Amino acid sequence: MATVRHVFEAGDAEFPTSNPSAPVLVQGTNFPVSGLAFDTTTQESCYFKFPALSYGSGNLTVSVDWYADTASSGAITFGASLAAITANTDTQDVETKAFATENTASDTHLGTTGQRLHTFDITVSNLDSLTAADDCWLRIRRVPADAGDTMTGDAIVTRVIVAYSDT
Amino acid sequence: MSGRFSGTQDFRRTANVPDDVAFTACGWARLVTDRNDYSSLCCLEDATSNATHFINFQTDVDGTSLTCFTDSHTFGTQALTVGTDFFWAITVAGLAAANHTLYYRAAGSNAFTTLAASGSNRAAMTPTILRIGASSYGEQWNGRIWNVKVWDRALTAAELLVESYFARTMFPASINVHWPIKNDADTRDISGNARTPTVTGTITTEDDRGLFGPRRRVFLPTTTSPDVTLALTGQSASFSAGTLLPSDTLALTGQSATFTAGTLVEGDAEALTGQTATFTAGTLSAANTVPLAGITATFSAGTLSPAGDVTTALTGLSATFSAGTLALATSMALTGQSATFTAGALAAALSIPLTGQTASFSAGQLTVAGDITQAITGLTTIFSAGILAPSGGDVSLSADTHDPIWNRHAQTQVIRESELKRNLEKLHGKKPKKSEPVAKVAEPAKIVAKPDEDGVILAELITQEDERMLNVVEQALSLLKILH
């Protein structure tokens, strides 16, 4: 049994025309830091597309690396939603395909340093009948309206990893 | 890379020009030389020369205050710094001042500066030319321009912010042109509309600022041999590979277990239990124990080389080794109803105890060397070889039937005394003294003499009641061997 991982950076994202997460590129002290900024009040989202290569079974684990733009406390809530299509089999119109029910998770700022890097996992259990080699779209969005989202300022996502078992 | 505009150059289109009430233009730029004069980024005009109506996104007469000029609006300004890359954009959604917005974002910033317009509505016009880097009045840009995108609609600020980070078009709805201008020869339109620009003058190539691009990576588990125990249990287990390298224990239990490989190398113990166990390989190298228990156990390889301090124990109803070269470095114990070795060359360095109903060796060359004991216990023991050369220790055969093929005439022959004498005369070229018979055989004693092509003779005494005659015959046999 082994784990397949898809690694996404800010440049891999695609965006809705309405309320997209905002790409950012900060010239850090020693190297530039790129990411996607998710607003604290407006629900913003982005998308990643990937093929479910070697998917075996089980839930997807979506790991989100992020840091706070301005805050040093509070919590954030992010949601991950999956849409999977089996080419040649599914008759669904790809341009009207809907996402499966969103799965959410929260993470709390660890304090000490405002812009320290955090990571947390979202378990995607609503798999939309996912099978190996499916064309998949993953929506990532912050859910400011969630009771667990209390952090002020933007949450800047630097990386998203989608992982699943190949058996 | 980018295009450097430095004098009389511009990129222009006079066909499929955007509408003056619904368009967006954006791109990246750097002011290299302050001309202290109007310097144009993007102009939409109703004439190629001295246009009457225009929307000109350019600097003011000072050469560094970025703004926009129409025939009736007044816009805010943004100070440009020579040598600083910046993103620029203009959106137009109508004739009113409020329908015109300018966007500016310096490379180190992640937010727009927005320049709004004021004033009365401008007059409608029919644009006839879209120009990058100059206007109908000249007013050339002296600097770099790259990644120009033009739409036939007014994008939102959110859309433009995304577009400003990405080299590719992120919101392609109503795209008119996308000119990357990555170097002096780059006149592509990558919008998909095939609207390449007409280039006036000759631009040069300079550096640009990198933008976001896809960098997705996927990590898949490897398919090479696992570093751990490979255990397979089932009705049928099959391995097929160009190279099969289990580096640890290989345990296979099942009705049928099959290995097929160009190269099959086992590093550790292999335990194979099942109805059928088959190894087929161009090269089969077992470094360690190969215990095989099953009804049928088959090794088939171009080269089969179990090496090292190994014990090859094979228990089963049928055990078959078939190889072009079968080299056994140490002991090989084979027990079963049927044990068969077939090889072009079969070399066993040490003991080959073979126990079974049938034990067969068949080889072009069968060489058993060293201090060996070949003990074969079974109902039938067969050696078949072009050359059979046991050397070293004793060769003991114990079985009800021995049928070495080199004894091609496996028949009982009664040799009478007179015939024996004649044979001896032929062999030695002289008559034995009459008083000293070399051999005397009394009937009904029987001597079986079976010479082969090389003159090796094996004689077997059929059961004798006279012990004295037995001794005589034995003496005769010894003499014959010596003479040969």
Description of the structure:
The complex is a heterodimer of chains A (167) and B (484). Chain A is mainly β. Chain A has strands spanning 3-8, 22-27, 32-38, 45-51, 57-68, 75-85, 103-108, 118-124, 135-142, 155-165. In chain A, strands 1, 2, 3, 5, 8 and 10 form a 6-stranded antiparallel β-sheet that branches. The N and C termini of chain A lie close together (6 Å). Chain B has 484 residues and is mostly beta strands. Chain B has 3 helices and 28 strands. Mean pLDDT of chain B is 71; it is low at 224-229, 307-314, 370-376, 391-417 and 434-445. The A-B interface holds A 2-12, 14-15, 17-20, 22-27, 34, 37, 48, 50, 53-54, 166 and B 108, 110, 156, 158-159, 161-162, 165-166, 170-171, 173, 212-222.
Helix content of chain B: under 10%
Instruction: Report the portion of residues of chain B in β strands.
Output: over 45%
| N-to-C span of chain A | 6 Å
- What is the average of the pLDDT values of chain B? 71
Tell me the number of strands of chain A: 10
Instruction: Name the chain pair with the biggest interface and residue counts per chain.
Output: A-B, 30 and 23 residues
Helix content of chain A: under 10%
Number of helices, counting only DSSP H or I runs of 4 residues or more of chain A = 0
Shape of chain B: rod-shaped
Low-confidence stretches of chain A: none
Question: Could you write a compact summary of the structure shown?
Answer:
The complex is a heterodimer of chains A (167) and B (484). Chain A is mainly β and 167 residues long.
